[in-house]
Amino acid sequence: MALQARFKLLLLCALSLSLAGFARATAQSNGAADNTPFRATLSGSSEVDRLTDEIIQNQVDLLRLNARMRLQQLQNPWQGRGWFLANLGNASLTATGAYINGFGRYAYLHKKRLRAAPRDLFEHATWVRTMANLETCGAAAAENAVLVAKDERNRRNHSDLKALNRQALALQAHIDNFLSSRAALVAAFSGAEKQRADAEAMVLQDLRNLSADEFARFYSDCRADSATNYLGYSLSFAINAIAGTGAIISNHATMINHGTAHYRTRLAGTSGITDIIASAISLTAPWDLRYAGRFVARRQFRKTSAEFHCTPVTLDQFHRHLNAYHAFASSAVDAPAATLSSHERAYALAARLFDQHKAMQSAQRRPSKLRFASQLIVANETAPTKMTNGIGSTIGAFKYTANPHERFEAVGGPAIAYGSGYSLATAELLRNQFWFEMSEARARKEGRSTRQVLSRELEELNQVGK
Questions:
Q1: Does residue 211 belong to any structural domain of this protein?
Q2: Separation between Cα atoms, residue 340 and residue 332, nearest integer Å
């Protein structure tokens, strides 16, 4: 019996020492919690603070999803350079072919020299233009193929735009559920504790609305960019396919030996008709792309905003509510300091990112306007002169079918104007690309390019909660 009593006493002493050690370890971990991220407060906070932590973490996940989506939609720089080279080749080859045709017509315009005009000279001029059209058709088809492959790869990885939208909706549903549960618990509070909880609730609601509105806006912009990319390359393919088809038919007319000269001359005039059609499309293409993008963005934004139940909130309002919460948090005595500190760090990060996005949006307006202005300049230098060439070729082939002197005169002048328009377009393409490369190089050197800013933002968000 004495042995059993001693054994029980030893067992009780060991148990007491174990509990004391566990208490000291818990106290030390709570005392060191000031330097840990906000996810570490989940185990030692109240139910309201636990729900707040979950809300913040889901908001961070939504901001991270937003940054990843925008990074994913950025175009590879070399893809843009490849399209520039294709357009540059098209403009320079078209100008060369037009000059050969125009100056060749004037060189043999005199009636005594008409019979000496080499037929293959005008064939070569048309083939040069055909090469330009085929080059751009191939480049446009390749660009669309790259876009399709990229979208398919993202779809397989469940990171395409529609999948990201579904993930964002799921996160938003969790946030709204946590906000409702938190509000129900806060309703039972009173005094300073309730004031602090209500002030933080306003910050959380603003954060919810701002992040939802931002995702809806960026998601809509990404959908619009995707649509305009596909449409732009498809329009370029169609324009050059139409013009190239007419040029091939025109060359075929000069090479065949059957049929009358009257028939062959009029068949060659087909290129004039196709030039008129192609130029009409290319003249309005920049405006078509601009308004198609705006239409898709506005329509998608309305739909996505309705799905996310977005409520308009300004950044000024968010900062006012955040300052009010800081005032309550700094004087709080009923909440763990680690919890308040972690929440404030998360809110400060979100506020800085929202301000950064607003600044980026403002900074991108001028380059966007300059790019559109350059597209308008190229369209207005090429389309009217192409249409002039088409009209001259059509008149020459169908009105002066049996009068070579008049036909050469009707075709030669517009062809020279055609070459001049594409020469100016070549210069504008070079100028715009040089400006773009210099701007991008300066932005990369200063660390403020869109890719660098979004990469840093994603890295910061990935560190939250670790």
A1: yes
A2: 9
